[in-house]
């Protein structure tokens, strides 16, 4: 199943690269406030689903652009283009993200960055890899010296005050905070040690499912804002190596309002 996920992610990644030069001519739909999808998002998603369905016609699918496709206890969670706003601006940071769940548990993860030809893969219990080499989270234990990734709450202002409180608490001591624009790649970067930690409010399951398994298989910790496991449903996520996760949790927790738990 990992092989099929890799084949699908590479195929979609190639399609993104081929389309990157012609973004000016793409039809772009606005799905919501600050939320866009182009025909490339939809083509890449169709490509991924065709490859998965050809191999596993009975499996279910949850995909960002086309929603739920019914099936058995296997569910493929697909973000065909994570970082659409970057892609549409020619800002070179985006990826394909594919995860497979069985009875609700993450089993397989692939995140593919076509620009750098970086393929992040994980299998439950089998470790995490970058281009077939084993990756691990960092050992960084203090915020001082740490590089932390985040995503801004750009679709609604509902949690902006809570977010800014978290941001203030973390930016004061961290070596740096990065908002690169692809949650999937941010999580992959935590898994391979380029970032020490990450947090975001209000992600969707397809943004983070693959990245979560990568981080866990790379020795990291992922929770929601209540230190629980409900991050795929709530979208509120804290990730890092075990020590940095704890540091981030302690700084984030005082700013967590009731509707963020
Ligand atoms: C978005 C990106 C972004 C994150 C948002 C996501 P999209 O995904 O991952 O970094 O901050 O929460 O929605 O819309 O580009 O697939
Ligand atoms: Ca996404
Ligand atoms: Ca997307």
From TrEMBL:
Transmembrane segments: none annotated. It catalyses: a myo-inositol phosphate + H2O = myo-inositol + phosphate. Mg(2+) binds at residues 64, 79, 81-82, 207. It is an enzyme of class 3 (hydrolase). GO terms for biological process: inositol metabolic process; phosphatidylinositol phosphate biosynthetic process; signal transduction; transcription antitermination. Its cofactor is Mg(2+). InterPro entries: IMPase (IPR033942), Inositol_monoP_metal-BS (IPR020583), Inositol_monophosphatase-like (IPR000760), Inositol_monophosphatase_CS (IPR020550), Inositol_monophosphatase_SuhB (IPR022337). This is Inositol-1-monophosphatase.
């Amino acid at each position: 199943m990992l092989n099929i996920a890799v084949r699908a992610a590479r195929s979609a990644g190639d399609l993104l690269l081929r389309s990157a030069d012609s973004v000016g001519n793409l039809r772009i739909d606005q799905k919501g406030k600050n939320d866009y999808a182009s025909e490339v998002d939809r083509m890449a998603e169709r490509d991924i689903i065709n490859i998965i369905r050809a191999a596993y016609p009975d499996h279910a699918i949850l995909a960002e652009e086309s929603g739920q496709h019914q099936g058995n206890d296997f569910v493929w969670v697909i973000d065909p283009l994570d970082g659409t706003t970057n892609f549409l601006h020619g800002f070179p940071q985006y990826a394909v993200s594919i995860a497979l769940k069985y009875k609700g548990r993450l089993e397989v993860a692939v995140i593919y960055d076509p620009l750098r030809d970086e393929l992040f893969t994980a299998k439950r219990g089998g470790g995490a890899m970058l281009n077939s080499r084993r990756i691990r989270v960092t050992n960084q234990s203090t915020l001082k010296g740490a590089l932390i990734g985040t995503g801004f709450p750009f679709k609604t202002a509902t949690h902006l005050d809570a977010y800014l409180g978290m941001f203030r608490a973390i930016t004061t001591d961290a070596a740096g905070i990065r908002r690169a624009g692809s949650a999937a790649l941010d999580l992959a970067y935590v898994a391979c040690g380029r970032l020490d930690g990450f947090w975001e409010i209000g992600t969707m399951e397809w943004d983070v499912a693959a990245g979560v398994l990568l981080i866990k298989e790379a020795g990291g910790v992922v929770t929601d804002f209540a230190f629980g496991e409900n991050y795929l449903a709530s979208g509120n996520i804290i990730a890092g190596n075990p020590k940095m996760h704890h540091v981030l949790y302690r700084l984030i927790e005082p700013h967590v309002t009731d509707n963020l738990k």
